[in-house]
Design a protein that fits this description.
- The chain is an all-beta fold.
- 0% of the residues lie in helices and 45% in strands.
- It has a five-stranded mixed sheet with strand order 2-9-7-6-5, with no helix packed on it.
- It is rod-shaped and about 130 Å long.
- The relative contact order is 0.16.
């Protein structure tokens, strides 16, 4: 061992660890207006040539105990076209690291061009029907309906917002002007101007009052 002598100097080298690139896959979905702020969810990521399913915008990456969570921005409420984007991502671990060094968000890099996607919100399709009520009047040689307490039911046929009868212009007249019991009343429904709704009913119905 006397053949070698070690000095006190040391040599340091700089090494680089580059982020792991991930590509985001978005769900493909069209929403129906229901007064909620709709956003697309991240459906999958591609990492190291493997595709992993994302649930509730969280996914285990398969690298150590890392779990990625995506925060999203954008979205929309009213009928129209919108964009959802990933605004940030964070990393958590299911098991605490032995040496106490936790992973950082910068360990992962989202590939440019996959950070956002477009979607649309379509109208809630409505039906309206007479729900109940009565009317009566003294003969006046017209078919005009006067005092009444009519009520109406409005519902969506495509799981959107139901709305109320206030969304409609509702008119009603007797089918004829003559005196009688159990007289037929004709109701006419016209949806007021509102891009978030579409009326899919027949427009008229009759009830005997």
């Amino acid at each position: 061992s006397n053949n070698y002598e070690f000095g006190n100097s040391s040599t340091e080298h700089q090494y680089v660890i580059n982020p792991c690139e991930i590509k985001i896959g978005w769900e493909k979905k069209t929403f129906v207006y229901n007064a909620s702020n709709w956003k697309l969810n991240v459906a999958s990521i591609e990492i190291n040539n493997k595709t992993k399913t994302v649930t509730n915008n969280r996914v285990q990456t398969g690298l150590g105990n890392d779990t990625l969570t995506f925060s999203r921005g954008g979205g929309g409420i009213d009928v129209g076209s919108y964009t959802t984007e990933v605004t940030s991502h964070s990393v958590s671990v299911s098991v605490e690291p032995i040496h106490g060094v936790r992973p950082i968000a910068g360990n992962y890099k989202i590939v440019s061009g996959a950070t956002s996607d477009k979607f649309s919100i379509t109208p809630s399709k409505l039906e309206i029907f007479y729900a109940g009520g009565t009317t009566t009047k003294v003969y006046d040689a017209t078919t005009t309906v006067k005092d009444n307490n009519f009520t109406f039911t409005v519902s969506s046929t495509n799981f959107g917002a139901n709305g109320t009868s206030e969304l409609f212009d509702i008119s009603y007249v007797y089918k004829d002007k003559n005196v009688g019991n159990d007289k037929e009343v004709v109701f006419t429904y016209v949806l007021k101007q509102n891009a978030n709704y579409e009326y899919v009913g027949t427009g008229t119905e009759s009830q005997n009052k």
